[in-house]
Write a structure and sequence with these properties.
- The protein is 55% helix and 14% strand.
- It is α/β, with parallel strands linked by helices and 201 residues long.
- The protein has two domains: 116 residues, Rossmann fold; 71 residues, no CATH class.
- Strand 3 and strand 4 form a beta hairpin.
- The radius of gyration is 18 Å and the shape is globular.
- The two termini are 13 Å apart.
Length: 201
């Protein structure tokens, strides 16, 4: 089973690209979606986050992302605390995903991980696929989001490996600057190439 690590900075179109892989029948593990599930009422992360970040959860809504974000902005060193809670839980969810994919006979799977390089997970995949677009396109996309500000955008970028470095370290780059169909063609071409290479080996 070929494991693709899909990553890309904020606003580059990574979620759209992950959906394109899924439309081609490739199982996709979405790390962000796994975390969102854990943050819901009754989720595995809720009591652990309440212990580490008192007042950032409630019985009715689980983890309050706004309060958690404010706590992290007030004390950025706490990101390590949050990562120590979340990463093991995501790891367990990922192992369940791999097991189910193997049971279903999948040839290729995608791990959609925003911080693939930052967390060292690029070493755990066969191919790194970076989703990219020009800086001006990225900026326009992100600043158009509700509740986004220039300061918030720049703070997010500061925690992410620069796009140029990601592209330099990638095995494959998907360019999303010219729309969904352009990206879809690249996804299909990559899958065809991987399947051809696998058949030849």
């Amino acid at each position: 089973m070929i494991v693709l690590g899909l990553t890309g900075s904020i606003g580059m179109g990574k979620s759209t690209t992950a959906a394109l892989f899924a439309e081609e029948g490739v199982p996709v593990f979405d790390a962000d979606a796994a975390v969102a599930q854990m943050y819901l009422p009754g989720g595995e992360a809720v009591p652990l986050i309440e212990h580490a970040f008192p007042g950032c959860t409630s019985k009715g809504s689980g983890v309050d992302r706004d309060k958690l974000s404010a706590a992290l902005q007030a004390d950025p060193a706490k990101f390590e605390t949050l990562n120590a809670i979340v990463h093991p839980l995501v790891g367990a969810a990922r192992r369940r995903f791999f097991h189910e994919a193997e049971q279903s006979g999948a040839e290729i799977v995608v791990l959609d991980v925003p911080l693939l390089f930052e967390t060292g997970q690029h070493d755990q995949v066969h191919h790194v696929v970076v989703v990219s677009a020009p800086e001006a396109v990225q900026r326009d996309r992100v600043l158009a989001r509700e509740g986004m500000s220039v300061d918030k955008f720049e703070a997010i970028l500061a925690r992410q490996t620069p796009d140029a470095e990601k592209r330099a370290r990638a095995d494959h780059v998907i360019d999303t600057s010219q729309g969904v169909e352009f990206a879809r063609d690249q996804v299909r071409a990559l899958l065809d190439q991987l399947r051809t290479d696998e058949d030849a080996s």
